[in-house]
């Protein structure tokens, strides 16, 4: 069923078409164009696989799912997104703001590392592939949607090898730059301890001051400074700022 236009401009258009006696034809064309514009919007698609999922004990499976579900709610402040889980150890996100998608990806990894059970075997983490591009087909289920961003994300995940973070965009100059910088940041994230990842998560999520992070976890500001410094937070922030700047600039330059 086709819904009626909601804003005043849309109502004015609809009123004019009714007055001119051509509602069905023009209203259809109007909605068709609105649909095309909506689905061709550039977005970020994150596809992730939990690392070593087969080694996670059954008693920790629910904890893992709760961790992902909690992050789905908490990270909406970075950018609105939808998330779906599939195959038991994989997930996919459709991120509305491509310029914020890398931050979402890094925070997902930080959250997983932080929630690693003390008695568990190995560190929880995920291989994450971020694709930036248009979405030509958006279904009710993210995993059955399609478009440039989905294709980049899925293909790059298959080509990652031992890496745990990769980004693919429609622009070769951006890809060339991000290939090197993302590899460095990936190496930093992979080396985080649970404690480091937890503080990074709190600090980056809403750019929280160190005093606020310290109060949240019940420690000193100096301890927060020391842990974030050892986690190379400043380098990660510089990377995210640069990523956001170049994605935003290229979106503006390539607007139709």
How would you describe what is shown here?
Helix 6 packs antiparallel against helix 10 (233-253). The protein has ten helices and five strands. Residues 1-39 have low confidence and may be disordered. A five-stranded mixed beta sheet has the order 2-3-1-4-5. Strand 2 (81-86) and strand 3 form a beta hairpin. It is an alpha+beta fold. The two termini are 30 Å apart. The protein has a single domain (40-251), classed as Alpha-Beta Plaits, CATH 3.30.70.1230.
Task: Summarize the SSE layout with pairings.
Blueprint: H1 8-19, H2 23-39, E1 42-50, H3 61-74, E2 81-86, E3 90-95, H4 101-114, E4 126-134, H5 148-158, E5 165-168, H6 172-190, H7 194-205, H8 210-217, H9 221-230, H10 233-253
Parallel strand pairs: 4-5
Antiparallel strand pairs: 1-3, 1-4, 2-3
Helix pairs in contact: 1-2, 4-7, 6-10, 7-9, 8-9
Order of strands, main sheet, comes to 2-3-1-4-5
- Over all CA atoms, what is the radius of gyration? 21 Å
Give me the secondary-structure category.
alpha+beta
- Annotation field: number of helices: 10
Mean of residue pLDDT? 85
Percent helix: 40-55%
In terms of DSSP E residues, the strand content is 5-15%
What is the C-level CATH assignment? Alpha Beta
CATH architecture: 2-Layer Sandwich
Low-confidence stretches: 1-39
Question: How would you sum up the major sheet?
Answer: 5 strands, mixed
Question: How many domain regions?
Answer: 1
Could you tell me how far the N terminus lies from the C terminus, measured between alpha carbons in angstroms?
Answer: 30 Å
Order of helix and strand elements from N to C terminus: HHEHEEHEHEHHHHH
Shape: globular
Structure summary, number of beta strands: 5
CATH topology label: Alpha-Beta Plaits
CATH superfamily: Nucleotide cyclase, GGDEF domain
């Amino acid at each position: 069923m086709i819904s009626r236009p909601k804003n005043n401009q849309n109502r004015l258009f609809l009123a004019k078409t009714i007055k001119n006696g051509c509602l069905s034809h023009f209203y259809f064309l109007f909605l068709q164009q609105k649909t095309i514009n909506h689905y061709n919007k550039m977005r970020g698609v994150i596809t992730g696989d939990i690392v070593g999922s087969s080694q996670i004990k059954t008693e920790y499976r629910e904890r893992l799912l709760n961790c992902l579900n909690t992050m789905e709610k908490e990270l909406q402040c970075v950018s609105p997104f939808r998330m779906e889980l599939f195959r038991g150890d994989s997930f996919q996100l459709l991120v509305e703001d491509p310029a914020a998608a890398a931050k979402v990806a890094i925070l997902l990894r930080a959250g997983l590392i932080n929630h690693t059970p003390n008695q568990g075997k190995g560190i929880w983490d995920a291989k994450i592939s971020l694709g930036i591009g248009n979405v030509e087909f958006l279904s009710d289920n993210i995993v059955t949607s399609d478009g440039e961003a989905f294709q980049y994300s899925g293909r790059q995940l298959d080509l990652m090898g031992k890496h745990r973070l990769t980004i693919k965009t429609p622009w070769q100059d951006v890809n060339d730059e991000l290939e090197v910088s993302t590899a460095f940041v990936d190496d930093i994230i992979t080396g985080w301890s649970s404690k480091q990842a937890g503080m990074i998560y709190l600090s980056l999520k809403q750019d929280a001051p160190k005093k606020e992070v310290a109060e949240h976890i019940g420690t000193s500001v100096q301890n927060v400074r020391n842990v974030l410094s050892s986690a190379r937070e400043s380098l990660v922030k510089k990377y995210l700022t640069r990523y956001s700047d170049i994605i935003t600039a290229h979106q503006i330059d390539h607007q139709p």
